[in-house]
Design goal:
The protein is α+β, with helices and mostly antiparallel strands. The protein has helices spanning 3-48, 108-129, 159-165, 184-199, 238-251, and strands at 53-61, 67-74, 77-87, 96-98, 101-104, 134-139, 147-150, 169-174, 207-213, 224-229. The chain has 2 domains: 1-92, no CATH class; 115-252, no CATH class. It has a 4-stranded mixed β-sheet.
Length: 252
Amino acid sequence: MSRRKKYPFLIIGIIILVIVGTTIAVKFYLSAKEQKAIQIAQEYLVQKYEQEMRYESVRYSWIDPAIYHVHFSLVSNPDMAIEVMVQDDLSLREPRSSGDYDYMPDNYYIACFEFEMGKYFRPDTKRIWGEGARTHAMFFDPALYAFGVPHGLNNRLTLEDMAALVDDYHLVVRPNVDFEDELKMSEADKILDFIQTVQGGLFKPSRISFLYNIPETKNNKDGLISIGFDDWIDINMVEQVMRRIETELANG
């Protein structure tokens, strides 16, 4: 092959090498940056809290502003999920107060409330649905790119005192039941039982939702359906629950 004929192949080879080298360099850079974000989050938690926390995972959000969502669990309580937001420039957003909230880079105190509220209702879900059922609380955070922690919320408070500071949270019940037509009435009875338990108790969530397993469909690819009650305080008959079930099934 003449020298002239070799030139195109040589140029193509150089281009391929440049592309491969650039790709490797970018991957190395992003990996190193991600590890640094994890390190920053770990050091932040160590400095702020006495509790020991274990790193679990990290997710990078490209949405402007880009943020690393670094996830941890409590060593003494692996079921408690904690998150730290690290900004794309590898800094932590400065804590600030506004209105009824302190805006923080982490959600530890929120996670404490959510876990304790779920734990409080665990005996009721176990009584109604058995061992596989779970309940957790979901705090509706008003903040973007930070965590809005209600003033005064901390892990030393009783659950009653925590709930007095949190004005918007949902209870989510996972009965661990595959929802079928023949179970509608029995599940409606159980849902009413749980709602009435909450009605007679200390805590007043904004909403109660019951999350059931259903077969996947074209319009419902996650295989779940939520039976939700914003008006749970007014639910007192199983017929009301049945109508809500039918509505959600029709919409799902």
